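Known limitations

Structure tokens in this collection are predictions and should be treated as such. Users comparing against experimental data should check residue numbering before alignment. To illustrate the layout, the record for Fatty-acid peroxygenase is reproduced below. The input appears on top and the generated tokens appear beneath it.
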Amino acid sequence: MTHSNEAKANNTDTNTSPMPQNILTTIQGFIEDLRKDPQGTVKNLQTTAQGIFNESGLLKNEGQGLAGEQAPSFIQNGYLFAGKMRRKAGLAPDSNQPVTFNLLGTPSVLVRGAEGVRYFYDTTKVKRAGAMPAFISGPLFGKGAVHGLDGQEHLDRKNMMVNLAYDDARVEQFKHLVAEETETMLSKWGEQEGNVYDDAAIAYGRAAFRWAGIPVSDEEMEERAAQCSRLLDTFGSPLTNIVAWRERRSLDMWYEQIIAKVRSGEMTVGEDSVVAHLAASDLEDRTAGIELQNLTRPTIAVSRFAAFAAAALVENQEWIERIRHASNGQLIDVPEAIAFAQEIRRTKPFVPMLPATAIVDGEVSGCPIKKGQRVLIDILNTNTGPDWDRPGTFDPSRFLNVDGESIETFVPQGGGNVRTGHRCPGEKIAVTALSVVVAALCRPDVRISDDQEDTTFSWTRMLTRPTTGVRVSR
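Generated tokens:
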């Protein structure tokens, strides 16, 4: 995969006042710029934010090494941040020794590797509640979602989510729906040039909404899928984050209304559907709607992996032949396509790191961790660190006939036990969705663009993805 030069180095509450016109105009301008040139707009806003921090002195990095506030470095470097922190600390590339520094005014420790994973996902040592800044957790997960819970409340909610998303029968149902929607996507590519990122988001969204049993029109499914995709494209930057909040607010209301309509009898759904089970829960309408969103929107986010997979296939042509031969035209349960999907998830994780807060004194690899200290798990460099054989080599065969969840240092969607820890219950669905599109991209009549701009991405952008979304045709 070709890295960019950067990598190489309106709905309002009724009890609130109307939004000032100048702010509203600014937001509308952001949205329009993002639709026309999302990559360029995000880059410009990141530069602006960095300048504000530098000039204000509020986040001034005083001293050498890791002294001072490191938030400006994180904003500037994105996925490269953890590696830069380790180099500044003088650590060897093959060392899993933790690094300490200040982030957003809080003493923090960055961990990675097997020992780091065991510590970070041990719920007797760390908690999630309040660890992630609200400007990130709000649009990404929603208030009251399972991601920010701890203790018995987390276990109860997590078990409900696992029963709905991790169950083999439900995953099997999703397989056929996503294959059907992918075939529709392929048909459209025969009529006009497609875009893997945009088109997979629609296919995944339609499959996810159908799987959940949400009875809405084709037009609304596609509109909401595109809205979910915009949210994910904008939440990672401090200034575009306002757009993500706008989309989140609209989506929250939509999902909440679905739950309310099912409960009132206004909307009829299948009695064993995901939406029916959530409507039958004791969660309030808003929280049940947020969890329904968290069971569908992340599937749409897999379109980011699909774009990376398309670009990786261009640069690993031998895998196109292997997958094509193994699939024999089928899209479901192709071992080589699944292995390719897992290698994409290993090398291009959704986020670079995740936070928690230590609830007791402890240590990782001899590094003391104090109660109240922020703990960060280095997702990217755990997935590609020294615990792996040839970690820097793109090799899907490492996942052939291997259960990815059994690998302790493979944490693209969390780690630990899926019921008791913070491993994502939708991981099987994510791998299924990605592997189906990988198999589709390997069909003989599919042409993936090999232009450099289609295989270029920036590690400093969050969330990163191939710049164009990767163009494709038949």
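For this record: The first helix runs from residue 5 to 8. The two ends are 22 Å apart (CA to CA). Please report discrepancies through the issue tracker.
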